[in-house]
């Protein structure tokens, strides 16, 4: 995908003429998103709730593949074709700043209508530019350590042995579990940076600092993350594979003893009914660096209203009424879709208090929602995916024993060339 930064003057002219060409008729809000069984279905539910109190409003949810949503939005914004845009669009959090910075003024400022103090702080920060918040926070990717109780017990460990541990201790346990059970501790795709992302954010750092400048060479959290990945690779406790299908397959088949990922993987784990009662959830391990915590995030997305929308005010009112205030709505989407939202008040609802027999009676949703409030806020910047590609490309150097500081310097130099 090629990104083009649109000047404020150009965009201002586009916005001034776009009111004549907005999509849909009065009272119809058009939404673009991906995944009809999750994002699309949840948005439809939200639309039904709002329409019950506002009979003149209808919601049109248009589902595309995620890559197509991004390409269509990029193309429309770059060309200034307002009639090709929806009223609301779903954007992955990792990409938010790229859109906000490349197309200043394209997305409505929701700050005046929405009380963002009620949301997880890290989610609000991801959609903020110059103090203005441009999105309605949606689903969380709060991370956890999922583990097989039976495998741990077979290796002589209890659930308590995974509580509040460091990555070094995790690797010690991993070696013992693999040796005694024959099962790998964890499955890792060397081409997927998700574990690096989880580790780095858990210590409150990212590839970029708070001002969006590259933060690689002196980034102790990133350094520790890469060193940990190298130690894991050398431990003999990792199942190496390629791609989403192989990764989820290793979980379902019982090949691995633990999974460290976002809360959204819960549905995949629970899809294996014969494994009910065999799983548990613990906080992720912590790095041994300044600012280290046991809370992090992987993935997640938010809803953005287009400034050019004819239905802008109604779209904002809709999002505010349901996603920012309706606690019962969050109980429903948790129960029916496994969606852990970002509204902190939802944590007090009944659905979050339920024990889950699949996870040995743990109150899994309550646990994840408690961790949600602890996730360190970071700045993803406009080029997370680009830097990811450089980091992944040099991970084999670190595994092979190259000095980490030298590799980090190389990564920073290459990243600078890639994004400038």
* CATH domain fold name of the largest domain: D-Maltodextrin-Binding Protein, domain 2
Strand order of the largest sheet: 2-1-3-12-6
Report the radius of gyration as a whole number of Å.
22 Å
What kind of oligomer do you see?
Answer: single chain
Structure described in brief:
This protein is α/β, with parallel strands linked by helices and 420 residues long.
Structure write-up:
It is found in: Periplasm. This is ABC transporter substrate-binding protein. This protein has helices spanning 8-17, 36-53, 66-79, 96-102, 121-126, 149-154, 167-181, 194-202, 220-234, 243-252, 266-270, 312-323, 327-337, 350-353, 364-372, 384-399, 404-419; strands at residues 28-33, 58-63, 88-92, 128-129, 132-133, 136-137, 143-148, 186-188, 238-240, 258-262, 279-282, 301-305. The chain has 420 residues and is α/β, with parallel strands linked by helices. The strands form four sheets. Strands 2-1-3-12-6 form a five-stranded mixed β-sheet, sandwiched between helices. It has a three-stranded antiparallel β-sheet with strand order 10-7-11. Strands 4-5 form a two-stranded antiparallel ribbon. A hairpin with a 2-residue loop joins β4 (128-129) and β5. α8 (194-202) packs across α9 and α16 (384-399) packs antiparallel against α17 (404-419). The longest helix is centred in the N-terminal third of the chain and has 18 residues, at 36-53. It is globular, with a radius of gyration of 22 Å. Mean pLDDT is 91; it is low at 1-26.
Characteristics:
420 residues; alpha/beta; D-Maltodextrin-Binding Protein, domain 2; 2 domains; 5-stranded mixed sheet; 3-stranded antiparallel sheet; 12 strands; 44% helix; disordered N terminus; plasmid; Bact_solute-bd_prot1
């Amino acid at each position: 995908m090629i990104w083009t930064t649109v000047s404020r003057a150009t965009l201002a002219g586009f916005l001034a003429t776009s009111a004549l060409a907005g999509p849909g008729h009065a009272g119809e809000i058009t939404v673009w998103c991906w995944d009809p069984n999750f994002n699309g279905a949840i948005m439809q539910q939200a639309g039904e709730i709002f329409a019950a109190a506002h009979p003149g409003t209808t919601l049109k949810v248009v589902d595309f593949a995620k890559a197509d949503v991004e390409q269509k939005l990029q193309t429309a914004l770059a060309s200034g074709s307002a009639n090709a845009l929806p009223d609301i669009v779903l954007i992955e959090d990792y990409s938010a700043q790229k859109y906000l910075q490349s197309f200043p003024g394209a997305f409505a400022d929701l700050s005046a209508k929405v009380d963002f103090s009620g949301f997880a702080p890290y989610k609000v920060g991801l959609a903020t530019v110059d103090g203005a918040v441009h999105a309605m926070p949606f689903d969380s990717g709060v991370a956890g350590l999922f583990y097989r109780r039976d495998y741990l017990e077979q290796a002589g460990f209890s659930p308590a042995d995974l509580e509040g541990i460091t990555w070094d201790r995790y690797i010690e346990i991993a070696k013992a579990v693999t040796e005694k059970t024959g099962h790998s501790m964890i499955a890792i795709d060397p081409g997927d940076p998700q574990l690096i992302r989880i580790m780095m954010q858990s210590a409150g750092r990212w590839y970029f600092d708070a001002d969006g400048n590259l933060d690689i060479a002196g980034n102790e959290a990133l350094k520790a993350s890469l060193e940990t990945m190298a130690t894991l690779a050398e431990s003999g406790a990792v199942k190496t594979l390629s791609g989403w299908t192989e990764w989820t397959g290793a979980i379902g088949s019982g090949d691995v003893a633990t999974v460290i990922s976002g809360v959204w993987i819960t549905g995949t784990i629970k899809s294996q009914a014969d494994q009910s009662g065999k799983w548990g959830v613990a906080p992720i391990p912590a790095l041994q660096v300044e600012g280290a915590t046991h809370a992090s995030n992987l993935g997640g997305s938010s809803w953005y209203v287009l400034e050019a929308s004819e239905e802008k005010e109604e779209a904002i009112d809709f999002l505010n009424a349901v996603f920012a205030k309706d606690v019962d709505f969050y109980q429903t989407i948790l129960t029916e879709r496994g969606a852990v939202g970002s509204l902190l008040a939802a944590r007090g609802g009944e659905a979050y208090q339920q024990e889950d027999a699949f996870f040995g009676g743990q109150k899994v949703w309550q646990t994840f929602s408690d961790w949600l409030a602890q996730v360190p806020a970071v700045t993803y910047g406009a080029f997370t995916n680009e830097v990811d590609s450089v980091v992944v490309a040099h991970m084999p150097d670190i595994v092979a024993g190259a000095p980490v500081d030298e590799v980090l310097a190389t990564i920073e130099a290459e990243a600078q060339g890639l994004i400038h």
